[in-house]
Each structure stands twice: as C-alpha cells, then as structure tokens.
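Progress against Task 2.4 (sequence-to-structure conversion) is shown through the following example record, which the project officer requested during the mid-term review.
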Amino acid sequence: MTATDGPSYRRARTAGSQTAVPALVMRGGTSRGLFLDARTLPADAAARDAVLLAAMGSPDPRQIDGLGGAHPLTSKVGIVAPGSGDVDVEWTFAQLQPDSDVVDTTPNCGNMLAAVLPFAIETGLLVPDGDTTTARVLTRNTGAVADITVSTPRGPDGARCVEYAGDARIDGVPGTAAPVRIAFLDTAGSVAGSLLPTGNVRDTVAVPGLGDVEVTLIDNGQPLVIVRADRLGARGDETPAEIDADAGLRDRVERLRLVCGRAMGLGDVTAKNYPKMTLVSAPRAGGSIATRSLIPRVAHQSIGVLAAVTVATACVLPGSVAHEVAVVPDDAREVTVSVEHPSGEFSVSLGLDAGDPPAVVGSALLRTARLLMAGEVLVPRAVWDPTTATEPNEEATA
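Structure tokens generated for the chain above:
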C-alpha cells in the first residue's frame, strides 16, 4: 500500500444554484452514511456542519430533503483525511439526528469505521499493492487507533480494487460480503478518560423515581452504562419496536442516563449522544450475554461495534453488572464473547493479561462494508459557495 502524491480528490464545484460536493454513500457494518474527503469541505467547523446538515436533510424527521434515512443509524457521516507519521488515514465521525440541527463529533462509530479504508482506496487516497491491504486508521474524535485489513485483488482491468463480495456474514445485514478485519490498539477511556471512569467495576447511583440502581460505568471505545434489564422493568428480549413504543421504559432509561453521565465525569449529557445505554440479561441463544441498546433514546436494531467491545470487556471483569449474568470463562488469556442483540449476535475477541482482575489488552472483530453510491451530494449554494474560499481545508491536509 502506498499513499498518493499530491491531491487525490476533486474539489467541490458550483452547479447552478447548488454546490456539488464529491461523496460516496457507504454501508459500514450495520450503519449507513455519507463519506467525504475532508479536503473538499469548508475548514470552518460551523460552515462544514451546515453542509453536512443540508446534505443529510436535517433537521426533519423524514430527512426528506437530503440523503439521511430518518434514523440515527442511517444519519451518519465519515470525514476522511490523509494520515501522518505511522497513521495512514485519519477520519472524523459525525453523528446527525433526523430532527436535530446538531452535528456531534464527540462520539465514535465502529460500524462506520469499517468503511474508512474502502473509502480511502476508492477515492485514491491510498493505493493497494497486494492481495490484502492493511492500514492504520486514527479516529480523530477520540484518538482511538485501529489496524484495518481488507481484500484488494486485481480487477478485470488489472488494477487492484476493494473486494466487496465474500462469505462473511454479520447479523443485522442481509446476505454475505467480504470481511473487514478491525484490530483496536487502544480504546480504553475513549471519551470518559479511563476504562472505569469512577474507578469501580460496579456503582450504585440514586435516580429520581427509581431509587438506588446498580450499574457498571465503562468506556472501552464507547462510554456505556450497563444495567440489568429487569432492574428497569424490562425482560431483556424486547424487540426494538417494543422498546421504542414503551415510553415508561425509555423515560426510566433516560433518567438513569442523566445521572450516570455526571457520575462518569461527562457533565450534563441531556443534549449529548453519549453515554449509550445497554440493558443486559442472561443469554438466550447460546451466546455469552443478551443485550438491548439505546443510542441513547432510540433502540438500536443490533448493537454498535464499540458498544459490543465495551460490553464484552465488562463481561470479563469480575464484579461487574455484565459479569454476573454472562457466560464466559474466568481463567482464559484469550476470550471470544458472543454478544446477543435483537438481530443476532456479535463476536468480540479479547486478549487478557494475567492480572487480578484481568485487564483487556486488545480486541478484534470482523465487519463488512459496501460502496452504495459514488458521485456528488448537492447542497444549496446559499449554504456554502466554494468560490468564496481561496484555500483548501488546511487542517485536513496538515
């Protein structure tokens, strides 16, 4: 693999009363979103966010005037830039909500991460030179680094390309595809600053209207509140539609989330997309643990990649809320945790040290990705006119 010399991107252009920005629509894992080269966007964050909101059609519950899919899982953006040093590619994840005008670049997304290397190859930012290509990718949001590997065989024209067809299957996505292998190098404390931001594997928090609630507050790539489903009046096997329709349950979850956000040192999280909430119970389908996730106020159709990594980590920590209901070995140095979710299961491989309690020293997993559309996304020229910008996005090219 080699990095290209000079610009490997097309600039945004005017198109009548609109601005056309080069873009790809990609599925990454169980998410879908818009991917753009950071150098094509305004350098000013507020101007950039205005472009993203217009491109996705937010704020509007249906996102009818943009490319968003009227759900948080399909209202995501990946902004990719060249790397530096030992990092091949950098990217910024942006979470948009259908009915909000906020562009949140504080969380991360392991599903969308699976599409970053394919995007870099598709757009010429990286050029593969072997049957497989591995790149080191930095998530700017949190500083997390991962080594990502994709298959890059020669196509009919002799040039190497990303292979999307294959036999890998992930629950929550129909059919099969080529595997995308992700090995996380260091994800502990991605947002909350440490794996266990309170220093405890289990905390008891006082929640208005609920009393004392036992939780595990943990961040191994995703700030997460883990609570037993039955403590909040849930069975643990509800469908996402049942959770979304249960206003009482969602209210209890949100009240708990607000208290736990402060306990994790995240302040007032009322307007934030984290911490995410995961209800756990004993496994029902031969896995290690059953989960139902909210992101944070809408039920996830499956579970996020880094949420799965974080739940799996909690499963191997004696004393945690997850550990008491999970089925995992207590003395292995390598453990595969099968995280059950509404669409199936998600396997996470963990490397453990020999400490007491053990510490997670590495995590790896498999995702799939696919390029869905290549072209230009058009936004009103009144939102952004690139002819008024004389310099490229210097921050993205630094």
